[in-house]
Structures are given as structure tokens and as C-alpha cells.
Design a protein that fits this description.
Blueprint: H1 3-6, H2 12-32, H3 35-38, H4 40-56, H5 70-74, H6 76-100, H7 102-107, H8 113-141, H9 149-178, H10 181-196, H11 210-218, H12 220-234, H13 238-269
Helix pairs in contact: 2-8, 4-6, 6-8, 6-9, 6-10, 6-12, 8-9, 9-12, 9-13, 12-13
């Protein structure tokens, strides 16, 4: 390699990639080094799934219930529930950076805001992939047959990454706007409410209570769950996949836009 090549100015793309890689590496290491953040998204959704399956198995006897295995029906829930944990994890980590002054120090460097945000979310995306593989493995071990086959599992992994990115960006927005991890954690129960008023335990067309059926129908979380569920118990349902991916992408785009705006505001104030 010549001296000219060594000392040649780096392109903006190279600089951006280096910055993203540096922040992403830090985010991933920090996520994996905190068992309190990495383990609950794996264990708690699966434990709740088994509890619900044990108590609600008779629901499969209802006329029109889509499967004779409530465990297969419930397996869709952990994928979305685990993504909700991404909101708290991403927000808590970023809020800690705000509180410790790490963000202030970065504002004195050439670090770009886009690099910081993308890199920060990398740890959440990696955790989302680990979660999805874990849930799929649990399903296969307990005998759940994925109707969409290997291709469906691949689509499910992609869907999980998009959902994790969207909810992780939402957590980043909350952290940047509030600046405290406590405020982000305070929002977690509210997000959890959306899960429980969805179609997580009963198909929407079998919900007998009118107000609950209406709430589940207008709740976007229902369509995220039904997208996953279609790959597990129905196969290739184009409508469910389109609605699920459409809502997941919309959440990701909106959350990333809000997080980018909040980051600019935060960096301006610092």
C-alpha cells in the first residue's frame, strides 16, 4: 500500500460506516453484558405463553377456532411481547447516556446524529434476532408445526427485526425527549395495555364482548400478532402479512422520524 493510499482522505460513506460500527459495537456489548436486560425478554414471554396455553386450551373447542393447539395459537404473542421489551431497553440505555453526559461529550466530536441513532439501535436489533430464534426453537421443541415452513420462518425473522427496530426507535424517542430512564420505564405498562386488549388470546371474530372486539380491531398490535400467527397456523395469508408488515414498517418509520427529531433537539440543547 502506497503512502498516498494510507493518507488519502476518507469518504463520507467510510466515515459514516465507521461511526455506526463503533456505536453499534458498544450498544451490542452493553446489551449482552446486562443479563437483567437480555434475559427477561426471553423468559417472561415464553412463561406467560405456557401459562395462557395451560388455562385457555379449552378455547380450541370453540367453533371456528383456527387450530386445535392453543400453544401454536399463543406462540405468536412472544414475538410482539419481546419487541415491547425493546422499547424499554433501548430507552433506558439511551437515557443513561443522556444522564451520564455521554451524549454531551459526543456533541463535541464529529459524530453524526444518524450514526449515533442507527448504532444505538443495533443492540436492540441483535437482541430481537436472538429472541426470535429462541421463540422459534421453543416452538419446535414443544411440537408446534410452522404451517409456512422454512420460508415462513425466514419471513418471521425479518418481521421480528422490523418490529424490534420500530419499538426500539420508539424507546429512543422517549429517552431523548425525557432524558430519564424512569420516564421510559413508566411508559412500559401503557404499552403493555395494548398487548392485552389485542387478539392475543382469542381471534377477533370470536370475541363476544362488543367493546373489546372493537378495541382489538382498532389496536395495531392485533395485526402484528396475527401476521406472526398466520405463518404458524395458517401458512401464507397475504392479507395478514400485508397488514402486519405494513403496520410494522409504519411504526418503524414514524418512530425513527420522531427519534431523529428528538436527537437533533437534544444535541442542539447540549
Amino acid at each position: 500500500m502506497s503512502a498516498t493510499e494510507v493518507f488519502a482522505p476518507r469518504s463520507s460513506v467510510d466515515v459514516l460506516a465507521t461511526q455506526i460500527a463503533a456505536v453499534a459495537g458498544r450498544s451490542i456489548r452493553r446489551t449482552l453484558r446486562q443479563p437483567a436486560l437480555a434475559i427477561p425478554p426471553l423468559v417472561f414471554p415464553v412463561a406467560l405463553m405456557f401459562v395462557n396455553a395451560a388455562g385457555l386450551e379449552p378455547s380450541t373447542l370453540l367453533p371456528g377456532f383456527p387450530t386445535d393447539s392453543f400453544l401454536a395459537f399463543a406462540l405468536a404473542v412472544p414475538f410482539v411481547q419481546g419487541a415491547l421489551f425493546a422499547t424499554m431497553n433501548a430507552g433506558t440505555d439511551l437515557a443513561r447516556d443522556v444522564q451520564t453526559g455521554f451524549l454531551n461529550r459526543l456533541s463535541l466530536t464529529s459524530m453524526r446524529g444518524s450514526s449515533l441513532l442507527v448504532g444505538q439501535l443495533a443492540g436492540i436489533v441483535v437482541l430481537g434476532l436472538i429472541q426470535s430464534v429462541f421463540y422459534i426453537t421453543v416452538g419446535l421443541v414443544v411440537g408446534v408445526d410452522f404451517a409456512a415452513g422454512i420460508g415462513g420462518i425466514a419471513v418471521l425473522l425479518v418481521f421480528s427485526l422490523v418490529v424490534s427496530l420500530g419499538f426500539g426507535a420508539l424507546g429512543s424517542f422517549l429517552a431523548l425527549r425525557t432524558g430519564t430512564g424512569e420516564a421510559v420505564q413508566g411508559m412500559f405498562p401503557l404499552l403493555f395495555v395494548f398487548l392485552f386488549i389485542s387478539s392475543m388470546n382469542t381471534p377477533r371474530d370470536l370475541i363476544a364482548v362488543d367493546w373489546f372486539r372493537f378495541a382489538a380491531t382498532v389496536n395495531p398490535v392485533s395485526y402484528l400478532i396475527e401476521c406472526v400467527r398466520s405463518l404458524i397456523i395458517e401458512g401464507w395469508d397475504g392479507r395478514a402479512l400485508a397488514l402486519g408488515f405494513g403496520i410494522a414498517v409504519a411504526i418503524a418509520v414514524l418512530s425513527l422520524s420522531l427519534a431523529s427529531w428528538a436527537l437533533r433537539e437534544r444535541m442542539t440543547r447540549t
